[in-house]
Amino acid sequence: MHLLRSTDIALRVVMLLASGDGRLTVDQLSAALGVPRNHLAKVVQRLQRNGFVATTRGRDGGVGLPDGAAATSVGAVVRALEGDGEVVDCEGPPCPLRGGCHLRGALRTAQLAFLAALDAVTVGELLAEPAGPVLLDLVPGPRRPGGTP
């Protein structure tokens, strides 16, 4: 299973935000994660639409986590960004083996097992040593107050 680059970035954003107690700007997130600002802004927008982050505009604005975000499963984030599509597309163009092939079912079983394993891990658990301190060191300077906008 291969995650989209935007899903990888989204998981890193959520982890970085969970590691502190304040909001970060898109520019701070972009610099800390080494991701182009425009791409990161699109990822943050998707996270916000799905309720994984909260955004506040203005001088003291930024991106933060809503209450209880540390209990969010990694599987929920991956599903929201990756969608529920199958690993292979047997319909377009139609595969001549689809009537008697067992590959599609095996891949779907593997995909469900992959997501079930991610469901067992919360965002908060991703902050355990040694990741937590490393994440805190990624953002120079103070974070904006009000981690829960």
TrEMBL record:
Needed cofactors: [2Fe-2S] cluster
An MF annotation (GO) of this entry: DNA-binding transcription factor activity
UniProt keyword Nucleotide-binding, yes or no: no
GO cellular component: cytosol
Protein origin, superkingdom: Bacteria
UniProt xrefs under InterPro entries: Tscrpt_reg_Rrf2, WH-like_DNA-bd_sf, WH_DNA-bd_sf
Gene3D superfamilies: Winged helix-like DNA-binding domain superfamily/Winged helix DNA-binding domain
Entry keywords, A to Z: DNA-binding
Protein's name according to its UniProt entry: BadM/Rrf2 family transcriptional regulator
Species of origin: Saccharothrix australiensis
